[in-house]
């Protein structure tokens, strides 16, 4: 048996990948190695960025660094894993460009445009999704998002008009935060670097109402709050293109052949799965990974391949899904690793009783909706497990500080930032 540890490769180091890595390293790795021939294990965490972007707070971070400094928005991943032995953990900055499931290796491209193949014994796909705008999610190294935020902040200082495209949660939150802190809407003190005259803020919605996945009463309440803050809401319009002009302004072409120009623009038009490196037979029609919704295995990819988080087809693109599915993922990964150990030690039989004791844990997805949307200075709209909550609770649970205080524990220990009975989020 090789002395080199077997790699547990995790692709993606956002909420899902970080939590999977910490959970495996803290306890599971010490519960393995039950046979004489069992290998040692090492987690290899791979991400295009060396830092986690706290995109939960992106709607407020786009307003300016006086509200949210970059040091709060970005947290070092490598620093958070320094306490683990080097023979048990390694971090690689790079992007997956191919996976060979027959040979069990992943091809990674680094920032110097060179590539390397990383063998895996088990593979966790946690690559998540990306927004159209680098303001709202990472688009590679975190420095790109910092540059995008700095450029947006610079334009915002003299902006007389802002267009936000997208009537979903990100669009509504961005419109509310900009109206609150740029124009000083409803009880908020206007930021000193803001324009002298009120900025025209337009929110373009592609549906007949905002927040189409939430109850209509919640949508109506959100629109009322935005309109009272001076936001112009336009429904049933879709963004066809957004072109930055030489002047720095953005020209938006909409689905009714209307063309609008603005000084600052935010694309909040949805998300796309980061799965372009995977073969199409593993993906559904929208590009999400087809994994078993209960046991999280990607059956067509071979042994010990799993998908978790937003990149998986079973996910509702909710951070709650991530943390509710971590325990089944880790338990089933452990079972599969122990099965390999036992079958290697007893290739001709003799481990049947021990194998029968390995019981998989099924993930049972909560089908209710939980969504908190800070809009005004001290409130917003929200539902928890399908039930509407008062505006002030949205402020206490999320809008007060967007949970930035929990970023370090999330990166450093894989903790759930939405853990019950904590009003940090």
TrEMBL record:
One of its GO terms (cellular component) is cytoplasm. The keyword DNA damage does not apply. Transmembrane segments: none annotated. Gene3D superfamilies: 3.50.50.100. Pfam families: Pyr_redox_2. Residues 7-324 form the FAD/NAD(P)-binding domain. InterPro entries: FAD/NAD-bd_sf, FAD/NAD-binding_dom. Keywords: FAD, Flavoprotein, Oxidoreductase. One of its GO terms (molecular function) is flavin adenine dinucleotide binding. Belongs to the FAD-dependent oxidoreductase family. This is FAD/NAD(P)-binding domain-containing protein. It comes from Tothia fuscella.
């Amino acid at each position: 048996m090789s002395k080199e540890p077997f790699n547990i490769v995790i692709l993606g180091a956002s909420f899902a990948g970080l939590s999977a890595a910490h959970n495996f390293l803290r306890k599971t790795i010490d519960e393995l190695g039950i046979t004489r021939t069992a290998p040692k294990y090492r987690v290899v965490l791979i991400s295009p960025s060396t830092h986690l972007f706290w995109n939960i707070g992106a709607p407020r971070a786009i307003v300016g660094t006086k509200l949210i400094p970059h040091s709060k928005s970005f947290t070092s991943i490598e620093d958070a894993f320094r306490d683990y032995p080097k023979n048990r953990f390694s971090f690689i900055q790079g992007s997956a460009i191919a996976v060979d499931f027959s040979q069990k290796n992943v091809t990674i491209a680094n920032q110097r445009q060179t590539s390397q193949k990383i063998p895996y014994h088990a593979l966790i796909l946690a690559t998540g999704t990306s927004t159209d705008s680098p303001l709202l999610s990472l688009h590679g190294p975190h420095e790109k998002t910092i540059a995008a935020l700095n450029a947006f902040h610079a334009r915002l200082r003299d902006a007389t008009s802002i267009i936000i495209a997208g009537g979903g949660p990100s669009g509504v939150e961005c419109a509310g935060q900009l109206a609150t802190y740029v124009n000083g809407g409803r009880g908020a003190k206007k930021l000193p670097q803001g324009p002298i005259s009120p900025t025209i803020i337009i929110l373009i919605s592609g549906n007949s109402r905002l927040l189409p996945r939430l109850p209509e009463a919640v949508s109506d309440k959100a629109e009322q709050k935005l309109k009272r803050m001076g936001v112009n809401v336009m429904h049933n319009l879709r963004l066809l293109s957004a072109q930055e002009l030489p002047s720095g302004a953005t020209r938006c072409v909409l689905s009714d052949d209307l063309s609008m120009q603005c000084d600052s623009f935010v694309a909040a038009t949805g998300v796309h799965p980061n799965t372009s490196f995977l073969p199409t037979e593993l993906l559904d029609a929208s590009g999400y990974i087809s994994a078993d919704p209960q046991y999280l295995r990607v059956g067509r990819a071979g042994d010990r391949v799993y998908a978790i988080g937003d990149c998986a087809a079973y996910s509702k693109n909710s951070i709650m899904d991530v943390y509710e599915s971590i325990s089944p993922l880790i338990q089933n990964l452990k079972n599969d690793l122990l099965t390999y150990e036992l079958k290697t030690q007893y290739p001709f039989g003799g481990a049947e009783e021990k194998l029968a004791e390995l019981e998989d844990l099924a993930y049972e997805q909560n089908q209710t909706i939980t969504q908190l949307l800070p809009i005004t200075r001290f409130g917003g709209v929200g539902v928890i497990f399908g039930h509407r909550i008062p505006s002030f609770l949205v402020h206490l649970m999320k809008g007060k500080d967007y949970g930035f205080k929990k970023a370090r524990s999330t990166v450093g220990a894989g903790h759930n930032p939405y853990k019950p009975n904590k009003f940090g989020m």
